[in-house]
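Supplementary Methods. Inverse-folding protocol.

Structures were first reduced to a discrete structure-token string of length 441. This string, shown here, constituted the complete conditioning input.
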């Protein structure tokens, strides 16, 4: 069995059904190209699906047979509503093309229009774009018999403007395209037009949104070896646009793609994107999300990808501190325990720190427990909340770096509200300990 197949089995078979509060959002399957939308007060995400294919299947290393849909009301607990479209359902598509790349979904007059690329049976292009409709974002979706005439390319994205006109953006390569959709949302008016004003270099994954009258045309852009998320703005949905620069820096750890969507939910803006968190394989990706901010003039502030992600973390379960907000003097590794998809902090040096934001405290806590392993003399963990020292926990040698023990300290402290926590490590060995999680009781 090859390495990819082993990874897939680990994730799909052994890992229990986990939807995380942190990044990556989903750990029970591989998800990429997440398009997030708000429908009926819920945040939905429509990603593509990465799987491991048999030799020779798929394209460019990607093997993508179907689409699932996910939703959340609180950005912490996610529901997988299951598969909504499989490649074998596409009337005009290859049944074994494994090319169901980045999709989008929009709502108009109570109908949900799902746009997806697929390799066509008639070989009229690398990808054609199909439409499927439903009366519920979770499906069931009814697939149109043919693809949209005049839309030839990958990564469809649709904007419905304030005046009700809808535009479809698509393409991957040196150029991207836009066309106005007819009222039926299943055909275009005239011919697709080249989008002007974009920088040189490979671009794909268009995502258009409008804020305070400005059109933000955002796109993954390979300027220097892998894709950064960039943007351009304009006053017309069809362009031309003025290039404004980068939103998210390119990954430099072996994944060439990034693919995103941007939206506002409950008065906060978010960016959804993907990384190869679980697999370390750029063709088996996992969707992520982070908060996004604008300055007063509407400039998008550059976003550093985080492990912490979005949503509050409650204290009713162990806090996965390895999904941190900020850290120094330590590393993160996948847990060696093959029965779970998880990570731990390791190579923790003296004076290292880790912060984890937005923990929802609601009680008087009697004790704090850390799951730790140490192959050295160990050290101290100092816990701070609101810059106040809450506890100091001594960790000693547990046998080796992968022998885990729970270490508890009594605290008897009332902690209420949403707080950021900080752990600071002290000791005099080169490396002090590994930590899997921290629990408040
Ligand atoms: O997921 C397949 C392709 O990779 C997408 O369509 C592109 O945007 C890139 O993410």
């Amino acid at each position: 069995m090859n390495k990819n197949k082993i990874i897939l089995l680990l994730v799909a078979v052994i890992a229990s059904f986990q939807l995380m509060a942190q990044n990556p959002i989903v750990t029970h399957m591989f998800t990429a190209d997440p398009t997030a939308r708000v429908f009926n007060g819920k945040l939905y995400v429509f990603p593509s699906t990465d799987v491991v294919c048999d030799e020779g299947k798929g394209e460019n290393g990607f093997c993508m047979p179907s689409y699932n849909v996910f939703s959340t009301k609180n950005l912490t607990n996610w529901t997988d509503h299951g598969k909504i479209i499989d490649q074998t359902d596409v009337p005009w598509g290859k049944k074994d093309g494994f090319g169901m790349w980045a999709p989008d979904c929009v709502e108009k007059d109570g109908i949900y229009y799902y746009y997806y690329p697929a390799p066509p049976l008639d070989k009229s292009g690398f990808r054609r774009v199909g439409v499927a409709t439903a009366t519920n974002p979770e499906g069931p979706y009814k697939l149109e018999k043919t693809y949209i005439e005049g839309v030839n390319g990958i990564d469809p994205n649709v904007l419905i403007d304030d005046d009700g006109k809808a535009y479809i953006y698509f393409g991957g390569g040196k150029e991207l395209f836009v066309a106005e959709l007819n009222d039926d949302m299943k055909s275009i008016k005239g011919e697709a037009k080249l989008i002007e004003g974009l920088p040189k270099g490979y671009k794909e994954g268009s995502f258009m949104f409008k804020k305070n009258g400005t059109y933000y045309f955002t796109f993954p852009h390979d300027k220097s070896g892998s894709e950064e998320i960039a943007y351009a703005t304009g006053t017309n949905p069809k362009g031309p646009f003025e290039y404004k620069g980068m939103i998210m820096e390119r990954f430099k750890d072996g994944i060439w793609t990034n693919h995103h969507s941007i939206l506002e939910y409950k008065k906060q803006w978010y960016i959804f994107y993907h990384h190869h968190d679980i697999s370390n394989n750029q063709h088996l990706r996992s969707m992520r999300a982070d908060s996004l901010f604008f300055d007063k003039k509407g400039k998008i502030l550059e976003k550093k990808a985080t492990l912490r992600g979005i949503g509050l973390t409650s204290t009713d379960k162990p806090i996965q501190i390895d999904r941190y907000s900020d850290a120094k003097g330590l590393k993160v590794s996948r847990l060696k325990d093959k029965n779970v998809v998880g990570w731990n902090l390791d190579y923790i040096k003296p004076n290292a720190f880790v912060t984890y934001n937005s923990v929802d405290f609601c009680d008087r806590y009697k004790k704090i427990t850390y799951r730790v392993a140490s192959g050295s003399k160990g050290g101290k963990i100092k816990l701070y909340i609101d810059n106040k020292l809450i506890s100091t926990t001594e960790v000693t040698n547990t046998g080796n770096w992968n022998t885990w023990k729970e270490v508890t300290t009594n605290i008897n402290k009332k902690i209420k509200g949403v707080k950021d926590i900080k752990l600071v490590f002290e000791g005099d060995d080169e490396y002090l300990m590994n930590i899997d999680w921290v629990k408040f009781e």
